[in-house]
Sequence to fold (86 residues):
Amino acid sequence: MELADIVSWNIWQMDGLKFVVPMSCKPKVTKETLLDGTVETHIEECLGCSKKGNRQHSGTYCKVMDWNTGEPVEFRSIAENGGGHG
Fold:
């Protein structure tokens, strides 16, 4: 089980530009009922996908295990800090 845990934290699939699980960014859909009873649907695209270079994706950010601390960390925090932790 310990080996399976280590392997599972070292093999993953990630969108390397967004640091999220591939195809996990989805538009946010909200519905609002107006006073006259009609329903308006609002669709907000993923902020990170709609603006080039933006890191505010609605998708699931990938995590990796920090074996020094024994705690999972978001991969983007490592990548954005030049490989350091934090």
